[in-house]
Structure formats: structure tokens, C-alpha cells
Amino acid sequence: MPWNKLPDPDAFYHATIAKLTYEQGAITSFPWLDLTTLGRHFADQHFLFHVLQIPFVNIFGLTQGSRLSSITLALICMMVIYIIFRLLKLKPAWLWAVLLSLLYPFSVRLILGKASPLAILLWMISLALTSLILINKKNISKSSSYIFYFLFFIFALFFSLSHGGWIILPLSTLILFMGHVLYEKALFPGPFKLVLYKLPWAGLLAGLLGLATGILLHPGRRELLSFLWVQVIKIGVMTPSQAIPMGQEWASANLGELLAASSVFLLIIILTVPGLIFAARKINFFETDDELQKFARLSVVWGILVAVLGALTLKSLRFSEYFQPALVIWVASLFQLIDWKKLLSWLSLDGGAKGRFLIPVIILIASGSLLARSVWNGYHVMHSKPMFMDNQYQPALQAISQQAQPGDRIFHAQWDEFPILLAHDQRFKYVAGMDPTFFYEADRALALDYFALTINRASTTQEQVWSVAHDRLQAKYALIDTERWPELAQIFAQDKRYIEIGRGPDAVAYRIED
Questions:
Q1: What pLDDT is attached to residue 136?
Q2: Residue 230 φ/ψ region, left for φ over 0, alpha for ψ in the -120 to 50 degree band, beta for the rest
Q3: Is the peptide bond before 105 cis (omega within 30 degrees of 0)?
Q4: Domain count, the chain
Q5: Higher-pLDDT residue of 462, 362
Q6: Dist. CA 226–CA 478, nearest whole Å
Q7: pLDDT tens for residues 41-68?
Q8: Average pLDDT, the chain
Q9: Which of 215, 325, 378, 423 could form a disulfide with 107 if both were Cys (CB 3.0 to 4.6 A apart)?
Q10: Using alpha carbons only, what angle is made at residue 496 by residues 490 and 498, rounded to the nearest 5 degrees?
Q11: Is residue 273 part of a domain?
């Protein structure tokens, strides 16, 4: 964790909304981006997360509060995941939790100042409850089942108040059900309807009721569904990434990146294949109390979920934060099915004492190398970016703040600069932010011309900039990042229609003459 900058600009937004929520109550409108769909349809999709951030932001300030709340939620998330591993009897639970905490990008996603650790926490608890019911259904009393369903209702409710992607919870539950059905049909021939009938549908219903209750209780419930239509469907599925700049988390992963995200668990999977063939522990598939049978069922149930989440990660990197913990549960359940001493002995290929020593050493070195690479990737991402310092743009924006009137529009070159500007001054209107799709959906022609100023910055002309900034956006002031957009900064510096009123080490402020 770097302590002088926030590697993701969204952290500025979350901390600012937490501060405003404390001062004004729930934020139900978004006047700062009136040119985007957020100006008409806004709902605080991370409402519970922002409420939890309030004491940190009030006591320690925006940036320090953001960092401390991230670390606190990350620690709570990992402790709960460890408890889940214990409940699922995935031994050694502490090791699986440690390995997961070292995975990139999971480790980074937990401390970016976003709602990820809270969402993962609630998602994992809900699916763990579902898994415990599926693998122990015949041994769970009705009263215990009701407790599970009530808890599922509560955590689903919290999930819908914490994260806009709540649809992933019922879908993940249905995928676990699918895995359970496949397992049952493979071992126990019988009517398909009977298997479906025995599924814990009450748990899914409790979860859906929890999600619906959360939506009804949400302060922005009137705009929530229309907002999420753009946030989840338009951005996650339909955004033309070739036309507008997208956030890195929405970028597609290639197969190599997916394998890298698997890290040491990919090695365990490779070892699991011969393990299941030559060193599998004896499983009584027809004995419900058999521990190994439960692990076998768990591996099938979570294996399908891992496959689906892996495919979604190939579509968008942000799904990795769900893919990786699911991967750990799947691999850990397979791990329990193998006699590892027998497997290592088989791998030594009669190499005697030397072979029995050499194989584990090779595996440990390979595992250590994969983990070291994963840790380094996380550290590099968190510390290598030069932008988004705690005081980013502050000197230049302060010059604008001294002259501009509330409601004036400030031109800035890119959408990801908005959270930082909002954190420093909430009196003005800006151009684009949160995600470029919100602007694109509101006015496609204007959005494409605006984003073209930086996408095609080598060929951008003075008249193009003036047409967009002055004529169409009607901006009164401009703040240009001189490090990120040197070509655009040169255009502003050479055009006398922009009057420089202040500058800092990273940006220059201008007043735009009529």
C-alpha cells in the first residue's frame, strides 16, 4: 500500500461520497456530471460501503481514511474467508487463505479503496452457506436450515446495498445448484425432477428476497434499476471499447493472464491430474457422512462455477476478484482427495531417497517462484503509477476555485480525472467521469468528439479543442494535466483564448475567454 497516492482514481470518488453522505445524507442526485446519464439517473450503488467508510474519512481525512478503510475491510474479508475454509474443512485452512491473499490481482483489488472486499466478503459467505446445505443436506435439521436461509437473506440484502453487481449472487447460486444436479445424476440414477425437487430452493428464494428488500430499502431505489442497466449491461457487455477509453478493469484478459491469475494453483491442478489417477484416496460416494465424498461433491459444484467465472474473466478482468477465491475452494477440495505422500513417491519414479527429496524441492521452488511473481505484480501495480497523488491537481484547481462561481463547468481532458477533481472541490460541474459510457450513452456525438481530443491527440487541432471545450461544453475554465497530455497542454498554451490563471507541478489552470 503506497501512503502518498491512491493508485485507482475511484478511491477519491468513494471517499468523497462517504464524506458527503455524512454531511448531507444519502446522495440521490449527481449534479457534477450533468452531461452524462448520471445527471438524470443516479443511485449510490455502493451505499453500504460508503456508510462504512464514514468514520475513517471523518477521522483520518479523505485519502488516509480511504487507505485505512481498505486495509480494515481487506483484513476482515480474509479472516472471514479463512473461517469459511475452516467450515468447509479445507485443510490446511490457514495455508489456503495465505495463498489467496498473495494472488494478483486479488490482493490489489482488496486495497484499491473500492467496495471489492465488502462485496467479495458477502458473496463468499452466501455461497458458503449454499455449499454447506448442498453437501450436508441430509444431516441438517429443519431449524438449522431456517437459520441458513435467514442468514442468506441478510447477507443478500447487504450485498444489494453494497454493490451494483448483485445479480452475480443469484446466478452463482444457480451455478452451484447445477453442479449439485450433475453430481447427483452421475452417481444416483433416478428421475431428474426428483433431483431438482430436493435442491434448497428456499435458500435461493431467501437470497432473492434479500436482494429485493435491499433494493426497496436503497435510498436511490427510484433510479437504481435504470442506473444499473447502464452500469452493468451497457458498460460490462455492450460498450464499444474501440471508440471510447475504458477503465482497465473492464479490459478483456487473454488466456495467459488467466493462467497467471491462477498462479500456484495452476501447479496444484497439474499435480492433481496424476494424483487423482495414481494416488486418489478411497471415496465412498454413496455414504453421505463420508468426508471425502463431501469434498468430491464440493469439487464438482465449485468446478463449474470456476469455469464460468474463468470465462467471464476472459471477457472482463474485474471478474478475477470472484474467480480467484472460487478457484481456491475448488483446488483445495480436490487437494483433499489425494494421498500426497503416495503421489510424491510415484513422481520420484523409484529415484530412492534422492528422488523423494528432489521432487518436493522442485515443487516448492516452482511454487515459490509463481508466488513471488504474483506478489511482485501486485506491488508493481500499486507503486509504479506516477499519477493520482493525494494532492494531485490541487495547486492548479485551487486557482480555479478562487475565481470560478458555483456551477461553472471545468474542462478536463479525460474521464478518470473527475474523481480527483470532485474530491478537491464539489462546487463545480465537470465533463465526464465514473465511466466513459455514462457520457457516451447521454450524447454519443459529443462524447466521441471529446474523447478524440486525447485518443487522437497527435492530430488534434486548436479549433477542434475550442469547438468542444468552449462551443459545445460551454466550459468556463480548464485544467490540463501536463504530464499525461503534453500535446493538449501545448495547444492550450499557444491559444490566446485560454488565459492561464495558475499552475502546479502536474497541471495548468486556464480561464476560457468568451
A1: 79
A2: alpha
A3: yes
A4: 1
A5: 462
A6: 31
A7: 888 989 999 999 999 999 999 999 999 9
A8: 89
A9: 378
A10: 75
A11: no
pTM, two decimal places:
0.91
With 60 as the cut, is the pLDDT of residue 188 above it?
Answer: yes
Q: Collapsing DSSP states into helix, strand and coil, what is residue 467?
A: helix
pLDDT in tens, 343-360: 888 777 655 666 667 878
Q: Which amino acid is at 504?
A: G
Inter-residue contact 497 to 512 (CB < 8 Å): yes
DSSP string, 291-338: HHHHHHHHHHHHHHHHHHHHHHHHH-GGGHHHHHHHHHHHHHHHHTTB
In a 10 Å sphere around its CB, with 0-12 CB exposed, 13-18 middle and 19+ buried, how is residue 240 labelled? exposed
Q: Tell me if 416 is assigned to some domain.
A: yes
CA–CA distance, 106 with 100 (Å, rounded to integer)? 8
The whole-angstrom separation of Cα 315 and Cα 512 is: 41
Residue 173 lies inside a defined structural domain of this protein: no
In a domain, 84, yes or no: no
Domain range for 410 is 394-512
Q: What's the gap between Cα 345 and its chain centre? A: 41
- Report the distance separating Cα 463 and Cα 495, nearest Å: 10
Amino acid of residue 450: Y
